[in-house]
Every structure is written in C-alpha cells, then in structure tokens.
Amino acid sequence: MQSKSFSKIGGSGSEVEVDETFIGGKARNMHKSKKIGKGFEKRGITGKTVVMGILERGGKITTRIIQERSVETLLGHVRSSVEDGAAVYTDEWKAYWGLNEQYAHQIINHAEKYVDGRVHTNGLENFWSLLKRGLGGTYVSVEPFHLFRYLDEQVFRYNNRATKDNPLNDADRFHLAMTQITGKRLTLAEVTGKVEETSF
After folding, report:
1. What is the per-residue pLDDT across 48-83, written as a single tens digit (0 to 9) for each?
2. Which of 3, 30, 168, 193 has its CA 20 to 30 A from that of 41?
3. Where are the domains positioned within the chain?
C-alpha cells in the first residue's frame, strides 16, 4: 500500500534508492506450539511480509507492502513512483535489472561491499532499522493486516522531519497530523479487521 497523498519523486539529476525488507515471522518470539511443523524452525522469509521502499535522497520516502519480489512487481512500482531520468540505486536482486531503460540505474553488490561512491542503499537501510526498532520495541505486537498503518506513520515522521530548509518541531508535526484527519472516521470494527475498510 502506498501513501494516498504521494506523487512521483525523482527526475533528472536526483538520486533515488530502492530496496525491500522482510517484517515479522520471528521464530524466537513464537510459542513452541506455533513453530513446530509450520516452517518456522529454520531461518528465512517464511511467514514474513515483504515491504518495498523508494527514497529520494534529501527528499521523501514511500513504502508499499508487496506480495512478491518479481520483475513485474518491483519494476512496476518503481516506474509508477519515480520520474524518468533519475539515478536509481539498488542492490543486486535480478528483478531490478530492467531499470536502465528509463533510469541511470547502478547496482551495489552487498556480497562485495556496501558503498561504492554515491552508489548505496544506506538511506533506506537506516529507515528500515528505525521502522523495525519501533515495531519491535514500541508496538511489540503488530497484526499483518495493520502493518500498512505503521508504515504510514513512520513514512509521515520521516517525510516531515526537521531539516535546515524546513525546521519542523513536534508541535508542527502534531498540527499537520490533526489537519489531515479532520472529517475522517475510523470505527472499532475497521481497526479490528471485522469489516472492510472505508475508502476515504
């Protein structure tokens, strides 16, 4: 899922990082009865949700929950989110290899190194770290069908962070958040997943 107010980022001369991460499904946090025979005995991506992120350096970020890391999915989301002509940096995952048709695409091979001059995905890695620390340390238990809400919260905080050009403080962020929820209603049934969400 993508932020509803998001427009394309990037363009000629801009630098954009693209990466995915896996959230949830930590076997060490599960009761023994839930792990045995259900594929959680071994490490891997079983039972985890895939989240894709696109970050414009010095600008905004967008995230989406995706079902698979296929060429069609990843390239489709990059093309719908990033203006043509941007420098796009990804890891070595083969699904990204078709990006050089529209973008100045460069790859960083994490088996060899994490930074090669301007080519890296460290901005997104930092965002993933902040997100997972919040999910694991603050919220502790997050239902998969609510994950997009937690992503939107972290994206909102990141996109409205204080910078030298935009010195927002906590009160400014709170006011901005309140102005965006006026007239919108979220019922307990929607929060608990008992009915389909209302489109706003």
Report:
1. 899 999 999 999 999 999 999 999 999 999 999 999
2. 193
3. 9-168
On whether the CB atoms of residues 128 and 118 are closer than 8 A, the answer is: no
Token reading at 143:
């239902």
Q: Which residues contact 127 (CB under 8 A, 6 or more apart)?
A: 53, 55, 61, 154, 158
pLDDT(33) > 90: no
The CATH architecture of the domain made up of 9-168 is 2-Layer Sandwich (3.30)
- Give the DSSP per-residue string, 82-97: EETT-EEEE-S-GGGG
Q: Tokens 């770290």, residue?
A: 129
Region of residue 13 (phi > 0: left; psi between -120 and 50: alpha; otherwise: beta): left
In the chain, how long is the greatest CA-to-CA distance? Answer: 54
Distances (CA, A) of 27 to 32, 34, 38, 42, 48: 9, 9, 10, 8, 10
Separation between Cα atoms, residue 57 and residue 40, nearest integer Å:
36
Find tokens 């985890």 and name the residue.
48
